Amino acid sequence: MKPRNWLSALVAALALAAPLTALAQGELVLYCTAQAERCRPMVAAFEKATGIKVLVARMSTGEFYAQIKAEAANPRADVWWGGTGDLHLQAAAEGLTLEYKSPKLAELHDWAVRQAEQSKYRTVGVYADALGFSFNPDLLKKNKVPEPKCWSDLVKPVYRDEVLVANPTSSGTSYTMLVTLVQLMGEDKAFDYLKALHKNVLQYTKSGATPARAAAAGDALVGVSFQHDAVAEVIGGASLRIVSPCEGTSYEIGSMSIINGAKNLENAKKWYDWALTAEAQSIDAQVKVSYQMPSNRNASLPPPAPKISEMKLIDYDFAKYDSSAERTRLIEKWNKEVLALPK
Predict the structure, then answer these.
(1) What confidence tier does 289 reach under pLDDT thresholds 50, 70, 90?
(2) What fold characterizes domain 6-128+252-306?
(3) By the 8 A CB rule, do 125 and 88 touch?
(4) 193-249 pLDDT per residue, tens
(5) Averaged pLDDT, 292-313
(6) Of the chain's two ends, which shows fewer C-beta atoms within 10 Å, N or C?
(7) % of the chain surpassing 70 pLDDT
(8) Contacts of 295 (CB under 8 A, 6+ apart)
(9) In 3D, which of 93, 21, 8 has the Cα closest to residue 55?
């Protein structure tokens, strides 16, 4: 992937709360891998609490990973907040992020602390969410298509060109789907499944949130995404039904990292500590744009958020499948054996 030019990335992203002079002033530069509606109130609250001005750019997890890697010799940003943990762990393994043990670790759920430990404290979990898919029941009924309940349903001929899935090369969501299937079925059977699913995929999108939006808009019958993306569409008025696949599913850990070589390191640590507080993590519940489980045990959980504790979850091996070598191997295999297939 060719990284974007820094200036064009900022122009295309969200100059959410600070003028371009913030970079020159050396205050805080934040890469935010979350919806714009989440980035804005987080930045505004941090600025109010600390007086530190923040300059923000927003792209997908894969794009920011490529950007950070390309900028390793001269980092432009200080903190990377949000996005699936696989690429944060990969960046940690490659030395792109900095070891930091926040005093707020004691307030976090075990799954967030385990991720910090696995990365040698080069990243930490800030939220979690389960993988699933969504559909409009009225649209399925109109097209005389049965409602899918399991992963196995999505490869049936009736869903030909009606399933939207992101590309795991750019999407942490889709990579999570890939390794979920590998752990559920075994690698050979999982790739057989993905080849069968390929026939039914209308498009491989760049962003993991797009399939839920497409299902809500009626542009595809089924969208595979993290469930909070579908919940957001429901809150916005969409008629969507959200499914936790019957065979089982997995979850993501959205993460946060300080970039190695950060020019505003002390302010980066201030953001890091603040973003792990219950107060900061309760902002999502207030603004009603994200429906994930916060990592701070005392943070407010948005009422519509999917209840992970009630789902059939696999025992996700983050140490193995979020490692740089395994991720690279599986994505290369997917590109060669699945994406390259004719439709």
Answers:
(1) low
(2) D-Maltodextrin-Binding Protein; domain 2 (3.40.190)
(3) no
(4) 999 999 999 999 999 999 999 999 999 999 999 998 899 899 889 999 999 999 999
(5) 85
(6) C
(7) 92
(8) 108, 109, 111, 112, 124, 125, 126, 127, 128, 276, 281
(9) 21
Amino acid at position 343, single letter: K
Higher-pLDDT residue of 225, 324: 225
The shares of helix, strand and coil residues in the chain, as percent rounded to the nearest 5, are 45, 15, 35
CA separation for the pair 13, 182 (Å, rounded): 34
Mapped onto helix, strand or coil, the DSSP state of residue 97 is strand
Nearest residue to 237 via CA among 288, 190, 302: 288
pLDDT score of 14 more than 80: no
Range 313-318, long-range pairs (CB < 8 A, 24+ positions): 313/130, 313/248, 313/249, 313/250, 313/251, 314/180, 314/183, 314/184, 314/248, 314/249, 314/250, 315/183, 316/179, 316/180, 316/183, 316/250, 316/251, 317/183, 318/85, 318/89, 318/114, 318/115, 318/118, 318/253
**How many C-alpha atoms does 139 have within 13 Å on its Cβ side?**
19
Closest to 211 in 3D by CA, of 171, 183, 176, 181 = 171
Distances, alpha carbon 325 to alpha carbons 87, 93, 175, 216, 237, in Å: 12, 10, 14, 36, 42
Class of domain 130-250+324-339 as given by CATH? alpha beta
Beta bridge partners of 258: 79
Domain boundaries, the chain: 6-128+252-306, 130-250+324-339
Cα Rg of the chain, angstroms: 19
6-128+252-306 against 130-250+324-339: fold identical: yes
Q: How many residues does the chain have?
A: 343
Cα 171 to Cα 63: distance, rounded to the nearest angstrom:
9
* Contact of 217 with 178, CB cutoff 8 Å: no
Q: Grade residue 13 by pLDDT with cuts at 50, 70 and 90.
A: very low
